[in-house]
Design brief:
Distance between the termini: 31 Å
Strand order of the largest sheet: 1-2-3
Helix content: 25-40%
Strand content: 5-15%
Largest sheet: 3 strands, parallel
Radius of gyration: 14 Å
Structural class: alpha/beta
Number of helices: 4
Mean pLDDT: 78
Shape: globular
Order of helices and strands: HEHEHEH
Low-confidence stretches: 1-12
Length: 121
């Protein structure tokens, strides 16, 4: 089992560079699990800095990732993310520990430069 943690510092999510760094993006093993601080984005802001990279959910699914565990929900993308994972037959699960969820929100919010990008507490 291998894992990755996401960060959105500078509007770059770890999923894209991680998958590119692996070389063959189709080399994900069937039991690989990706662990992320925040739920993978299901959409990108048109014209935004990360638009050219595509959304994290699609990138993960296209790479063959079938299991994702996240701590903090992304209220702006949850519906799209859940739909895409369901359509792909992939598993998307949030941790059940409120302490871990609060820590993830605090960590994520410490990386954003605009309060409008912050996750609700």
């Amino acid at each position: 089992m291998r894992s990755a943690t996401s960060s959105r510092r500078s509007n770059i999510s770890l999923e894209s560079p991680l998958l590119l760094a692996r070389g063959d993006v189709n080399s994900v093993l069937p039991d690989d699990i990706v662990y992320t601080t925040v739920e993978p984005c299901g959409k990108r802001t048109p014209g935004g800095q990360g638009e050219y990279m595509g959304d994290c959910t699609t990138n993960l699914i296209d790479a063959g990732v079938r299991y994702v565990v996240y701590a903090a929900p992304d209220p702006d993308a949850s519906a799209q993310t859940r739909y895409k994972f369901e359509q792909a037959g992939s598993s998307l699960r949030q941790v059940n520990d409120p302490h871990i969820i609060r820590q993830a929100i605090t960590l994520f919010n410490s990386t954003v430069t605009s309060s409008s990008d912050a996750l609700p507490q």
